[in-house]
Write a structure and sequence with these properties.
Layout (H helix, E strand, L loop, with lengths): L13 H11 L6 H15 L6 H13 L3 E4 L2 E4 L4
Antiparallel strand pairs: 1-2
Helix pairs in contact: 1-3
Length: 81
Protein backbone atom coordinates (compact mmCIF):
# COMPACT_ATOMS: atom_id res chain seq x y z
CA UNK A 1 0.00 0.00 0.00
CA UNK A 2 2.88 2.36 0.64
CA UNK A 3 5.01 1.33 -2.33
CA UNK A 4 3.83 0.38 -5.82
CA UNK A 5 3.83 -3.29 -6.69
CA UNK A 6 2.80 -5.69 -9.37
CA UNK A 7 -0.85 -5.20 -8.40
CA UNK A 8 -0.72 -1.57 -7.21
CA UNK A 9 0.07 1.26 -9.61
CA UNK A 10 2.22 4.19 -8.51
CA UNK A 11 -0.70 6.63 -8.68
CA UNK A 12 -2.55 4.52 -6.08
CA UNK A 13 0.40 3.82 -3.76
CA UNK A 14 0.84 6.19 -0.82
CA UNK A 15 4.35 7.16 -1.93
CA UNK A 16 3.07 8.22 -5.37
CA UNK A 17 0.14 10.10 -3.89
CA UNK A 18 2.54 11.76 -1.45
CA UNK A 19 4.62 13.10 -4.32
CA UNK A 20 1.52 14.64 -5.87
CA UNK A 21 0.53 16.20 -2.55
CA UNK A 22 3.98 17.72 -2.07
CA UNK A 23 3.78 19.31 -5.51
CA UNK A 24 0.59 21.08 -4.45
CA UNK A 25 2.16 22.49 -1.28
CA UNK A 26 3.73 25.60 -2.79
CA UNK A 27 2.27 27.46 0.20
CA UNK A 28 0.63 26.41 3.46
CA UNK A 29 -2.93 25.16 3.00
CA UNK A 30 -5.78 23.81 5.07
CA UNK A 31 -6.55 20.11 4.77
CA UNK A 32 -9.84 20.85 2.99
CA UNK A 33 -8.22 23.18 0.45
CA UNK A 34 -5.41 20.70 -0.21
CA UNK A 35 -7.97 17.89 -0.62
CA UNK A 36 -10.03 19.90 -3.13
CA UNK A 37 -6.96 20.89 -5.16
CA UNK A 38 -5.71 17.31 -5.11
CA UNK A 39 -9.04 15.91 -6.35
CA UNK A 40 -9.30 18.58 -9.04
CA UNK A 41 -5.75 17.98 -10.27
CA UNK A 42 -6.22 14.22 -10.38
CA UNK A 43 -9.51 14.56 -12.21
CA UNK A 44 -7.96 16.82 -14.86
CA UNK A 45 -5.09 14.35 -15.34
CA UNK A 46 -7.51 11.47 -15.78
CA UNK A 47 -6.12 9.59 -12.80
CA UNK A 48 -8.16 7.45 -10.43
CA UNK A 49 -9.67 9.65 -7.72
CA UNK A 50 -8.85 8.19 -4.32
CA UNK A 51 -10.96 8.41 -1.18
CA UNK A 52 -10.39 10.84 1.65
CA UNK A 53 -9.22 8.00 3.91
CA UNK A 54 -6.26 7.20 1.64
CA UNK A 55 -5.52 10.94 1.35
CA UNK A 56 -5.32 11.19 5.15
CA UNK A 57 -3.08 8.11 5.28
CA UNK A 58 -0.81 9.86 2.79
CA UNK A 59 -0.66 12.96 5.01
CA UNK A 60 0.15 10.73 7.99
CA UNK A 61 2.95 9.08 6.03
CA UNK A 62 4.39 12.44 4.91
CA UNK A 63 4.28 13.69 8.49
CA UNK A 64 6.07 10.57 9.74
CA UNK A 65 8.71 11.03 7.03
CA UNK A 66 9.05 14.65 8.25
CA UNK A 67 8.16 15.97 4.79
CA UNK A 68 5.26 18.12 6.05
CA UNK A 69 4.32 20.00 9.20
CA UNK A 70 0.96 20.99 10.66
CA UNK A 71 0.87 24.49 12.13
CA UNK A 72 -2.18 26.49 13.22
CA UNK A 73 -4.58 24.42 11.14
CA UNK A 74 -2.44 24.49 8.00
CA UNK A 75 -0.22 21.95 6.29
CA UNK A 76 3.11 23.10 4.91
CA UNK A 77 6.15 21.49 3.37
CA UNK A 78 8.95 20.91 5.83
CA UNK A 79 11.53 23.65 5.60
CA UNK A 80 9.11 26.01 3.80
CA UNK A 81 7.76 29.06 5.58
Amino acid sequence: MILPSKHLKTDRALIGIGGEVLQLLDQSKTVSRLWEEFRETRSKQGKHVIGFDRFVLTLDMLYLFEAIDFDRGRILRRGAS
